[in-house]
Amino acid sequence: MQYNRLNTPALIIDEKIFKANMEAMEKCLEGSSLRLRPHYKSHKCAAIAKMQIEGGAVGMTCAKMSELEDLVDAGVEDILLANQVADKRKIARLAQLALDSHITVLVDSEENIRDLSEAAAFAGSVIHCLVEYDIGMERCGVVSNEEVLRLAKCIIDSPSLTFDGLQAYAGHISHMVDKDERLSKTKANYEKLKELIEYLNQNGVEVKTVSGGSTGTAEIKAVEGLYTELQAGSYLFMDNTYRDLELPFKNSMFIVSTVVSVRDGLAVIDAGVKTCGVDQGMPRVVGCDVKEIVASEEHFQLHEPSVQLNVGDTVLLVPGHCCSTVNLHDKLYMVRDGKVVDRLMITARGCGK
To answer: Is the entire prediction scored with pTM above 0.85?
Structure first.
């Protein structure tokens, strides 16, 4: 079946570009000490996670307990939950899942460390921990070398927990369009992190793992040699947000939509915010410049398109944000030379708890 015969709106992946993006990341990390631990939130698809691991990824990163459960259920054996788990019911569940997979979680408080230790001891499992160091996101994490050391020692002294190292995620840098600014900010963070690691080593704490990074900083981190794990996710699909960053990855994910109404200077299509994430901007229409796109639940209004669009025409959209778009679909279609060759279920769709 040709992709334009799909019931729209539909999420499709260009297989050739998808595979080229995987190869581009492999080449980017070739010869470096940086291992890929891709982020599950970008595709939420167990089948793709298996492809990435078979392609050399050390394991998977995820954001939520429900994503973690989906990965364990799919047989993934090494998972980083790149978040704090504070609810004691979820901590108990985390400890149980750690019997089946090598699970690492982030911490930034002694109370949380105690809760994790008690749950793991009760379950008879081992939970691995990274102390989250706030490198500039102003989100979770601690901000001083002394706080990191205190938490690291607390983990080391806690039964059933293992201290592996640090997470230092600088997502605020990832989308900086100016390459020199992106490089400068990343180098400044490198110096801060290097000083922290030296401080921990001087105080008898070994840092085996430094996890973080993203699609926008992958090339930089592969060269600098400090991080051991790269949490890039968007590189597989890319999106309109990354369009101007001159990265070695191309758009492979598109939304197929149908024109449902036209009049002078306006075309309306059957994709809207319920099928296309707009949290990082509006989509781009492939092969058609548009003066303005207005979004509603079920439609995008394309004002003054540069080409003539007619009712029934199929258009392709590059989403503004691939991660939030994936979470709006049940499945994605793999397309080769315009023909659908596979259908993959988005097994963690809606897993936000």
So the answer is: yes
